[in-house]
Design goal:
Elements lengths: L16 H30 L4 H26 L4 H29 L11 H27 L12
């Protein structure tokens, strides 16, 4: 049974569309996370930061860029900044957190990846694989949340 406040066309789509919607939401999240993650890893590595500091910078930037991408869309729909921020927090916090947990665990777990330089293939291959794995493992989380009217389902009210 759907919540009365969430009657949208996507609730009446074929059952398989929820996976498609979850994949789209995850890809959206991945875009912001990847921008922040890559920028954080590059900044941390280039600045010679300790691995823990690099991870903290990457996570912070992933949240900033993830929320910013969502806010851009809902601001365009006419929401005031404060309300747009609330929508972004509701839509993306769990997805970004899961994605960051996975991709940073991979980066830290791959021997030598965090210590590799920016010109080292190990750094970039590990980063790409960590983001790909994060996408695969976060998609079911987003599907579960969307099915309950949470996560990216909140954003669809403003499209």
């Amino acid at each position: 049974m759907t919540h009365p406040a969430h009657h949208h066309a996507h609730h009446h789509a074929p059952a398989g569309s929820s996976w498609r919607m979850a994949a789209q939401a995850t890809l959206h999240c991945l875009t912001g996370c990847a921008i922040g993650e890559v920028l954080g890893m590059v900044v941390g590595t280039a600045a010679g930061l300790h691995n823990a500091a690099t991870v903290v910078v990457s996570i912070a930037l992933a949240f900033v860029f993830g929320y910013a991408l969502t806010m851009r869309g809902v601001l365009r729909a006419g929401l005031p900044v404060r309300q747009a921020l609330k929508v972004a927090l509701a839509a993306d916090t769990v997805s970004i957190a899961v994605m960051e947990l996975i991709d940073n665990t991979v980066m830290v777990g791959v021997p030598g990846a965090m210590d590799a330089g920016l010109s080292d293939a190990l750094f970039w291959v590990s980063l790409v694989l960590s983001l790909a794995l994060a996408f695969v493992l976060t998609t079911p989380v987003n599907r579960w949340m969307i099915g309950r009217g949470k996560g990216h389902a909140v954003v669809h009210a403003y499209h």
